[in-house]
Amino acid sequence: MAAASHCKEPREAGRHALALWQEVDKALAELASANERLKDIPLPRKFPATLKDFLRLVVQAKTTTDGTKRLRDFYRSEQRQRYGKRELLDTFTTEEVNQLAAGTPVLWRRDTKEIEDWAANQIKGWKEGGFRTESLWTNEARRYRLWWKDQLTTRRREAGSGA
Prior knowledge:
- By secondary structure, this protein is mostly helical.
- The chain has six helices and no strands.
- It is extended, with a radius of gyration of 24 Å.
- The chain starts with 9 loop residues before the first helix and ends with a helix.
- Mean pLDDT is about 80; it is low at about 85-90.
């Protein structure tokens, strides 16, 4: 109420208090929404958590091998999206620049080996160092789950169309 005390008239103070209350209410609703999204992410018993915990709780594949493959696919996909959309023009060959000018898509500039190495290093890092904080865990889990949901949607669509 201290902020409203500078208002000269009670009506003005009331409007100010209502606006402040609406702003706080909106912030609380956003926080509740974020908490609701995170509520669905299972957490390990303690941190640092292991890659094995992540595969079991978040990836939820039938075997560790399947889970590791799925996580590797997730990291490959992220790299393809990242490097497929944002490359500096001077990294393209003249032929590729001409293809871009003609509207022909150019494949990502990172080759398959670079993408494979990056994905393997991500998994190796989690395996060796684990997920040190809940923040790291939830960020990775949220991104993975969004990707996995998209994968399932795509698979269902393809199965339904007979592709």
